[in-house]
Amino acid sequence: MKNNYLALALVSAAVLSSNAYAEGKNGVAAVVNGEEITVAEVKKGYDENPQIKAKVPFDEFYGKALDIYVNGKLIYQAAVEDGVMDTQAYKDQLKTAQEDVARKVYLEKRVKAEITDADINKAYNEYKSKFKPQKEVKARHILVSSEAQAKDIIAQLKKGAKFNDLGKKYSKDNSVDLGYFTKEMMVPEFGNAAFAMKKGQISKTPVKTQFGYHIIAVDDTRTTKPLPLKEVKPQIEAMLSQQAVAKVFKDLNENGKVERYSLDGKALPNMPAAQ
After folding, report:
1. What does the H/E/C string look like for 183-210?
2. Model confidence pTM above 0.85
3. How far apart are CA 49 and CA 257, in angstroms?
4. Structural contact between residues 268 and 260, judged by C-beta atoms closer than 8 angstroms
5. How is 88-120 classified by DSSP, letter by letter?
6. From the CB of residue 142, how many other CB atoms can be counted at a distance below 10 Å?
7. Which of 176, 216, 220, 249 supports an S-S bond with 167, CB 3.0-4.6 Å?
């Protein structure tokens, strides 16, 4: 029983320690000249950067980012004290920034409203209906310079030598394993030879190409299938987003009153929205 209480106490202490680190000091990550930077602010910056989030855990990001947040706050405080907000340069850039943010938020809102699950499923079904299955081969090869050496390697394989061992020893190509490929992805001589073989076969004679002499081992064959929705959904959403943005510009141009003029002041025809 005592051991159980001890284990529970140790676990509780570890959790409390972890939470204390994750939450800073009562939720505060730093205090800069009396102004707080919260852990929540740092966490928000982390969550809004999916590329960083996918590669770095938050505790590691926190340690590296805190100085950046502190320095940013110091610069901002110095700018305020210097009266930067009253300068024309600040006002001009603020106006540009406000317009940029407004455009971004509006487009995101419109695009989100345009793309539905039904649209995604429709695009995915179109992808599946147009998909053309292709045969693929998974193979390894050993590439050497002379036909005589290639024949000697084939002889060693027939005596029981391991393909990968001989590949590491003799091949000019470090990539012994070629993975899956279609016939068209390879030079004709190699593709024809590999696709004429069956799973588990090793070429009985060297295959000559512009790169030298190959010994091919076919490990598997398959017919390609459409990728599942979860794998192609990001590409579908990107495509639909582009279409939605184009539609937004088209609608605004058609419904807005736009007058264009050349440098010499002559009226220009109203151009259609870029597609």
Report:
1. HHHCCHHHHHHHHCCCCCCECCCCEEEC
2. no
3. 38
4. yes
5. HHHHHHHHHHHHHHHHHHHHHHHHHHH--HHHH
6. 29
7. 176
